[in-house]
Amino acid sequence: MAVVEGARRRVIDVGRRALGLDVPAADHTVAVLHSVDHDVPGLDRRETLQLMRIRLLGATGAVIMAISALGVGAQPVHQNPTSGLRVLGFFARAGTSTLAMCMIGTVLVVMAWLLLGRFAVGGRGGEPRHRLSRSQMDRTLLLWILPLSVAPPMFSNDVYSYLAQSEISARGMDPYTVSPVAGLGLDNVLTNNVPNIWRQTPAPYGPLFLWMGRGISHIVGDNIIAGVWLHRMLVLAAVALMVWALPRLSRRCGVAPVSALWLGAANPLVLLHLVGGVHNDAIMLGLMLAGIEFCLRAIDDIHPFDRKAWALLVFGTVLITLSSTIKITSIIALGFVGMALARRWGHGLRGILYSAAILGAVAVVVTVFISTASGLGFGWIDTLGTGTTVRSYLSLPTAIGIITGFGGVLLGLGDHTTALIDITRPIASLVTALIVLRMLIATWTGRLLAVGALGVALGAVVLLFPVVQPWYLLWAIVPLAAWANRPAFRVPAVVISVIVSLLVMPRGADFYVFQIVESAIATVIVGLTLIFLTRNVLPWRNEAGVSAPSQQPTPYGVSS
């Protein structure tokens, strides 16, 4: 009996430690990603001049990309406004030159972003000696976004799927059972612009997004250019919401707001794929972040918990739920808000059940309302896995399955890639569930702030997701930008953002290998030449130091 009792206790101890219930704060490895930023002086005259040059460098890159999009952007097959024009149509005919322009513009934007980081998060040595102001960051970000906001879609054709699926809904059909080919016909101008892989598949998006898309279809009909513009307006509004929410969330975590904006909103992945690629992930992220901010205002800032707190909590919960009716992934944020609320109320497990019941009730009501009021019903639940048919190299379980399957082929064991992926993906799902549960408990016990724990959980979801597109990385990077300010996170996040931004090719044409190689060589030459010419006028070298010696650093206030 003693042996059995000892084994039982060891299992319980291991289980509690695995869930994070008995882990000391110092031993919680995720916590090392966060510390409190110090308040440092603003830029001096020389640094302000450098900032203006950096801003111009990024804007130049964005303009070059916007021009190159006339040739290598994801322009529509029909209703292409540049087709047949002598000047504007030149870019589509000069494939190699236009591809080189796009690569050079992308490199300039990435270079400018990295240089801007000197004044936002510092170099490898830590915090910056001086930090740019919020207004300087906002003006820089706006200048970089504007050229891409008026350019044709880049790096993705998904916006044309949005238009086709919205038109199906506008015609009174169910986009969750009817594909573009079945609903609109193969000869329809909207169907012809949808990538071949998605022409026979139903919509994988939530009802709120298709409800908004239906409104756009009623306004523009089959006018593709106008439809793309209106969808981009939604994305730009969502990016503005991200810019509003990120600094407020970062202050709660003691992180400099401009640091969070630099990594989260000015990230090249945001510029290239959310703004340039017109992806609805921007709407999901904007609504989710704004909802978290309103919920945390109620939970952390209002004492006692009065009517205003209840109103903010409900409003924030509604926003998070609305974001999940764009893409279901963001519903996970409600769990972390609920744990933060349960910690505020106390009462152990009873507090968790109480907060879960309240937030769950609000979420159910909002979801049912959107699904029924839109007339789209709940068919979207059945199509959530539509995208998993794609094999993505950024997905860890998929990559393991593909590599292992390829190894089997080399060893003469046959191609078992599909079977291996069917094994690795469920295992990855179990690991993801365990990590999310551990982060929820860390929020409840107070070891991690809700924003940071959510970001870590979304990081696990992204890395272990069956399909990971480049812009999916922003699901984790954007919320973590408000909390994880240590090099252990920022360095990998920056490296991954840069590599993915540079490797993703435009979607406007099929390129030969020689075109890609020639464009890459031209890009390297231009990049190295630029660095050489600006070595004395731009802050390419790392400058150590955190603040002026005469000024004592003070931490940002932490309100949660």
From TrEMBL:
- Coiled-coil blocks: none
**Species, as recorded:** Nocardia yunnanensis
Q: Which named protein is this?
A: Uncharacterized protein
User: Would you identify the family this protein belongs to, as annotated?
Assistant: Belongs to the MptA/B family.
Report the InterPro entries cross-referenced here: MptA/B-like (IPR049829)
UniProt membrane topology term: Multi-pass membrane protein
Assigned keywords, A-Z: Glycosyltransferase, Membrane, Transferase, Transmembrane, Transmembrane helix
Intracellular or extracellular location(s): Membrane
Its main localization is: membrane
Question: Transmembrane stretches, by residue range?
Answer: 54-74, 94-116, 137-155, 224-246, 258-276, 311-340, 352-381, 393-411, 423-441, 448-468, 488-505, 512-533
